[in-house]
Amino acid sequence: MQAARNFIINRQYAQALHVLSDMDAKNAEWYYYSALANAGNGNRIMAMNHAAEAVRLEPNNQEYQSLLSQFQQGSFSYQQRGNRYGYSMEGAGRTIMQLCLAQAACMFCCRPC
Asked: CA-to-CA distance for 103 and 77, rounded, in angstroms?
């Protein structure tokens, strides 16, 4: 999951999708990252479906709900398009920041004692 997360952060969406496709276990986190990678790769329908599945699996997860909401409102595609042309979009930047914070929290909380 770490490799997929890093590819997404670096906007290497095809590589992230490749890493995700090699994983057998598909939990809410998998669907969340798949939604981000598919959106970045231009696969909007798959992205929305995977975001919805992440929310279905973990309905109380605010990050997943926020991403699905962005897709449903159509704002994510505009943010992605703006980022491609060098414009900083608050929502997309927030999503990347959330990814970084989630990674840091996971590394802190989930490391072996």
From this structure: 24
